[in-house]
Amino acid sequence: MKFVMIYGASGVGKESVGRELARRNGWHLFPQHLAFDVACAVVGFGNAGFEKYQRKVCLDAFRTLAEDGASGIVFTFCYVRSASDFFVEGLCEFLDEFGITAEFVHLTCDYGEHVQRVTSPNRLNTNKIQSKAYLDNYLDRFDFSTLPGMESFHLDSSRLTIATSARQIENHLHRAA
């Protein structure tokens, strides 16, 4: 089974690129925000046990897909240095348990493009960042650098279409295989 984690700050295009990559390869897409939304509803954001519950939702989904013989999973994840390490530890345990070698893609875009993406009408009616002010505060407060100790393919999607970004990730996956 192929496991590709596309990670980066909120609003850089992870889910859009991930959806295209999954579609092109017949893989499953699992955006982290689904587990985040469930954990918010059940535990409440910031409450004790939130991160543990969010991780459980994701890992249960991955386990189900792996046990059902999925050919691939594209997981989109907002990695925040240090705060997300608990989640990454659990993910690594899952990958080891199933003998899966994951590919990690760090997706970024330049600031001007980032603002355009988060203020796009496509983000209306979502629980995602939708304003420049919120984005600025978010970028100032958190570190969205690469996963420590893991090799990542970096893709700056500032001037790329969704399809081109997905193709570049596919090219990387073929070279890595």
Task: Please write out the topology.
Blueprint: E1 2-7, H1 14-25, E2 28-31, H2 32-42, H3 50-67, E3 72-77, H4 85-98, E4 102-108, H5 111-118, H6 132-141, E5 152-156, H7 162-176
Parallel strand pairs: 1-3, 1-4, 2-3, 4-5
Helix pairs in contact: 1-7, 2-3, 3-4
Average pLDDT for all residues:
93
Helix count from the secondary structure assignment: 7
How are helices and strands ordered from N to C? EHEHHEHEHHEH
Q: What's the structural domain tally? A: 1
Question: What fraction strand?
Answer: 15-25%
CATH class annotation: Alpha Beta
Strand order of the largest sheet: 2-3-1-4-5
The overall strand count is 5
Q: According to CATH, what is the topology?
A: Rossmann fold
CATH superfamily: P-loop containing nucleotide triphosphate hydrolases
How many strands, what sense, and barrel or not for the largest sheet? 5 strands, parallel
**Terminus-to-terminus distance:** 13 Å
Just name the CATH architecture: 3-Layer(aba) Sandwich
Helix/strand/pairing class, anyone?
Answer: alpha/beta
Low-pLDDT sequence parts:
none
